[in-house]
Amino acid sequence: MFVDTAQVTIKAGDGGPGVVSFRHEKYVDRGGPDGGDGGKGGDVLLRGKDNQHTLARFRHQKELKADSGQSGGKRKRRGKSASDLIIDVPVGTEVLDIQTNQLVADITEPNQIVVVAQGGAGGFGNAHFTSSTRQAPRIAEKGVPGEERIVSFELKMIADVGLVGLPNAGKSTLLSVVSNARPEIANYPFTTLQPNLGVVDIDNQTSLLFADIPGLIEGASHGKGLGDDFLRHIERTSVLLHLVDAYQDDIIAAYQTIQTELASYKVDLTTKPQIVAITKIEGLDDELITDRKASLRQVLPKNVKVVAISAQAKQGISDLLRELTLLVDEVKAAAIPEELVTTADTTPVITLPDAEDSWQIIQKKKKYIVTGKKIERFAHKTDEASEPAVARLRDIMRKMGIMHELERKGIEPGDRIDVANIITLEY
Ligand SMILES: Nc1nc2c(ncn2[C@@H]2O[C@H](COP(=O)(O)OP(=O)(O)OP(=O)(O)O)[C@@H](O)[C@H]2O)c(=O)[nH]1
Ligand SMILES: [Mg+2]
């Protein structure tokens, strides 16, 4: 079965904790602090692969988790950082954060690598905390947790050629004749329920990827038949191959029905370069075929080619493949990188990143909730059970001006300061 969506949990590795340790040397009474830092947690990365065409494996592999960094050691030994987790996904995979609905990654090239969750930094060991006033610090940081998110993968097959047409037009039969694919074929509508992909070898160097999708009927854009949702698989193909059964009573109406549905899809697919193939012609005489072609030409834009084929008798196939190769090459050569395309209604939206140091306070009676990127990072690093660590967090809050603002808001001894649900302190 062709699987084209999957939901997975992505978890980068946590940073390893720093440690509290003091030198023990034979002739030194009180050795200085020598606790090492924790190692960094592993990132989770996705890498594009062009020989993969399915997300099927993510039905079993629902969690992608990188290892955590190791804790620091004595003698300033730094904990080992965890290695990154690299996951291969098919080219054409889009990654959406389920909670924010934001695009996290769009894998469009082979070997393109995108970090989808960042490993946490390791905590500092106590060797970091010596100062003139603090000679024997008993303080070490915890590691920062690795990023975690639930994402959906959506594979948009980036085929070169998308096959469209009414049910029974002969789409799957053509695919089975020109490619390595073995789709189901039958003499009834809606044989194809899932998209099929096939690689069509043109010559030693060239191949075209074909996508065969279920047939469309009138009203598909309103959900009739199998609907038009699967058109997303051909949204990005270079060209469309529109198949029309030669035995249709009204060949023009058959053609136009499909065009109407392609136009009603969420992006107008009729703007995509197209070739029209009249199918099943092996039993027809030349005159009739010419006649069929001529009637279609009346409604086709000048630059749209019409060919006549029989997949069964393998007639007209090499002509068709030649025309398709030429057109695909042309489209690919003309393709402008997406970032250069701007239209009047795509006003760029610029989102300013959260200022690193900024913070907010929300007061709920005797409780003050403090949030902010930097302060939250420090909160994560603070071991609640360690008095010096908590004292340091208070110190940082003072330096960042948070304490001052709490006092201005009227905080009283005994009130609670909750840093983003990570740690709670008493004022
Ligand atoms: N005579 C003849 N019949 C053909 C030819 N190509 C396909 N057919 C027949 O047409 C019928 C439909 O073929 P399919 O390839 O399943 O059609 P489809 O367009 O994929 O149909 P859906 O998947 O239902 O949308 C089958 O019975 C095929 O054997 C051909 O070149 N000549
Ligand atoms: Mg089919």
Summarize the structure.
The chain is α/β, with parallel strands linked by helices. The protein has 7 helices and 18 strands.
Q: Strand share of the residues?
A: 15-25%
Bound molecules: guanosine-5'-triphosphate, magnesium ion
Low-confidence stretches: 339-353
CATH architecture of the largest domain, by name, is 3-Layer(aba) Sandwich
The ordered string of helix (H) and strand (E) elements is EEEEEEEEEHEEEHEHEHEEHHHEE
Query: How many strands in all?
Result: 18
Lateral arrangement of strands in the main beta sheet: 10-11-9-12-13-14
The total domain count is: 3
Helix share bin = 10-25%
CATH topology of the largest domain: the name is Rossmann fold
Quaternary arrangement of the chains shown? Answer: single chain
- In DSSP terms (H or I, runs of 4 or more residues), the helix count works out at 7
CATH class of the largest domain, named: Alpha Beta
Major sheet attributes: 6 strands, mixed
Structural class: alpha/beta
What's the overall average pLDDT, rounded? 88
Question: How far apart, in Å, are the first and last alpha carbons?
Answer: 60 Å
Under CATH, the homologous superfamily of the largest domain reads: P-loop containing nucleotide triphosphate hydrolases
- Describe the global form: elongated
Q: Report Rg.
A: 31 Å
